[in-house]
Design a protein that fits this description.
single chain, Rossmann fold, 2 domains, five-stranded parallel β-sheet, 34% helix, elongated, binds flavin mononucleotide
């Protein structure tokens, strides 16, 4: 679900978590949304409007009675032009005002005047949140169709531990996408995606690597995030920036990749290994830069561990394990052999000799091979679209 051309109204209220709204405003803007921020008077005690103005490149509304340079009645127009209203963080006070339909500031007037979906992400000290007044107010909002993005349990600003911490940015972004009509079939799932190529050092300045750009794995991570999953992206050095709203675990070598994957395996529902992990590494990388006087140089390579094989044999193997097979010949035969040998649920095979797809390209042409299934050859399409088709298959396997 893309946020391109969506108008999102972000309400920020007087909670200690107001600074986190800056991250949210930035993430929404980076995804192409037009973000209009309304701050309550109390919110201005925690974060300056300038922060949001700089992040969104839009004027920030703070005062109902300020003269509007465009001579338009902002508390009405902002609500009416919004595709969605999200209040994050929502203080106990604002929740009470909305529950009772008060209209004493720009944010509350806007909520009354909008017909867009309204998402409310409470953030407060745990006793304030548990208080029956707050709970009754939230109940009122729910019964009116507001979506409440539940706060998390954890350490609060007061030092105490309890429920009341603002939901994570990933959860808020997922709720936004869902409210805007996106698919959310990975909500509640934790998935791990590996991406990029690994670098195996020869000496402190040189390494052996491959042509992987990370694009396919990053598209997979982004698509899973958009479908509501909690995503861990374990990435070797890549040519592009990682998507926001996910946990990025950067690695360099195959051995680091293995350690990171094994750390995540016990706690994930699905693992997709899209990384191009080096098969070999130097037995002993030089500790000093190798001098280039000699006419020949012999490097001794040793086999890297078979990460997919280890995952498949793991006592807590994820329910769904997907591998990639980048082949330059006998595509189907080699991919099918890998599917069986590594005990995978699905393998994504691509012919790397094609110039319009594969390594580094924006598009990919792949064949999906499941167990006991006829291979399904997809036409050339953007990697993000390939990613969604792969997740469609994974969602089906998770339901079995
Ligand atoms: C340091 C500090 C932190 C606060 N944090 C919160 C909070 O996290 N959640 C909350 O509901 N109120 C919090 N408050 C109280 C609100 O700022 C106060 O209720 C205010 O009236 C909320 O106004 P608003 O809803 O119009 O923004 C805090 C107050 C202070 C001084």
């Amino acid at each position: 679900m893309t946020l391109l051309n969506k108008t999102i109204l972000l309400g920020v209220t007087g909670s200690i978590a107001a600074y986190k709204a800056a991250g949210l405003a930035s993430a929404l803007t980076q995804e192409g949304a037009m973000v209009n921020v309304i701050m309550t008077r109390s919110a201005g005690e925690f974060v300056r409007p300038l922060t949001f103005q700089a992040l969104t490149q839009r004027p920030v509304v703070t005062d109902m009675f300020a003269l509007d340079s465009q001579s338009r009645v902002q508390h009405i127009t902002l609500g009416q032009t919004a595709d969605l209203v999200v209040i994050a963080p929502a203080s106990a006070h604002t929740i009470a005002r909305l529950a009772w339909g008060l209209a004493d500031d720009v944010l509350s007037c806007t909520v009354l005047s909008t017909t867009a979906p309204v998402l409310v992400a409470p953030a407060m000290e745990s006793h304030m949140y548990a208080n029956s007044a707050t709970q009754e107010n939230l109940g009122r909002l729910r019964s009116r169709g507001f979506v409440i993005i539940e706060p998390e349990y954890g350490r609060l600003a007061s030092g105490a531990v309890g429920r009341g911490r603002l939901a994570g940015e990933g959860a808020i972004m997922a709720a936004i996408r869902q409210a805007l009509g996106g698919v959310s079939d990975l909500t509640g799932r934790r998935v791990v995606v590996t991406a990029g190529g690994t670098q195996e050092p020869i000496d402190p300045v040189r390494y052996i690597s491959n042509r992987s750009s990370g694009r396919m794995g990053y598209a997979l991570a982004e698509a899973a995030r958009d479908r509501g999953a909690e995503v861990v992206l374990i990435s070797g050095p890549a040519a592009i920036a990682a998507p926001g709203g996910i946990k990025l675990v950067p690695v360099v070598t195959a051995m680091e990749m293995r350690e990171a994957v094994m750390d995540e395996v016990p706690a994930c529902d699905a693992l997709i290994m899209a990384a191009a992990v080096a098969d070999y590494r130097l037995e002993t990388p030089a500790s000093q830069k190798i001098k280039t006087m000699a006419p020949e140089l012999t490097l001794k390579l040793v086999k890297n561990p078979d990460i997919l094989g280890e995952v498949s044999g793991h006592a807590r193997r994820p329910k769904v394990v997907v591998g990639f097979a980048a082949e330059s010949q006998d595509l189907l035969k080699n991919a099918q052999t890998k599917l069986v040998a590594r005990n995978l649920d699905l393998i994504v095979a691509n012919d790397i000799t094609a110039s319009d797809s594969g390594f580094g390209a924006e598009n990919n042409r792949v064949v999906l091979i499941g167990r006991d299934q006829e291979p399904s050859a997809l036409p050339l399409m953007p990697k993000r679209q390939v990613a969604d088709i792969i997740w469609d298959a994974v969602v089906g396997l998770l339901r079995l």
